[in-house]
Amino acid sequence: MKCSITSSDKPGFWENIEELKQRGFKIGTKSSEDYAESIAKAFGKSNVLVTKINMKRGEIERNYDAREKTKASFPDVIASLEVALGDGRNIPDDITLAKYNALKKLAKAKALAIKNSSKRGRHARD
């Protein structure tokens, strides 16, 4: 994002402005003051997004640390999720947070179904 924000004097300026707008950034082009103010706001928003991403990554890693009592890297977390899903799926490194959360819910539901199924099977044998 920051690369797009700062490359206004380079070829492709208007394409960068359109891309930023599509990604939710409001870039003013009516005057140089409007442009400068909107770029400053875009930098701020970009920094906030980076902070949120890093916080979520830390939260995900801490959740796995608590269970396994070891430091979990992001690839470890993704590998654990792939195993929990158990369907041979290969999760890409550039997974979105929304997709990660959805897959995590799916893995949790699958684990609960297996647990409930094994309880029913035990009761049937008793």
User: What fraction, in percent, of the residue positions are helical?
Assistant: over 70%
What is the mean pLDDT? Answer: 78
> Element order, helices and strands?
HHHHH
Reported for the largest beta sheet, the result is: none
Q: Give the radius of gyration.
A: 22 Å
Q: What spatial form do the alpha-carbon principal axes imply?
A: elongated
- Regions with little confidence, pLDDT below 50 for 5+ residues: none
How would you classify the helix and strand content by structural class?
A: mainly alpha
Topology, number of strands: 0
| Number of continuous helical runs | 5
Through-space gap between termini? 61 Å
- Strand portion: under 5%
The figure for the number of domains is 2
Explain what this protein looks like in three dimensions.
It is a single chain. This protein starts with a helix and ends with a helix. The chain is built from five helices and no strands. The longest helix has 37 residues, at 32-68. With 126 residues, the chain is an all-alpha fold. The protein is elongated. The mean pLDDT is 78. Helices cover 74% and strands 0% of the residues. It has helices spanning 2-6, 13-22, 32-68, 74-85, 97-125. The protein folds into two domains: 1-70, no CATH class; 73-126.
Brief rundown of the structure:
This protein has 126 residues and is mainly α. Helix content is 74%, strand content 0%.
Helix and strand topology:
Elements: H1 2-6, H2 13-22, H3 32-68, H4 74-85, H5 97-125
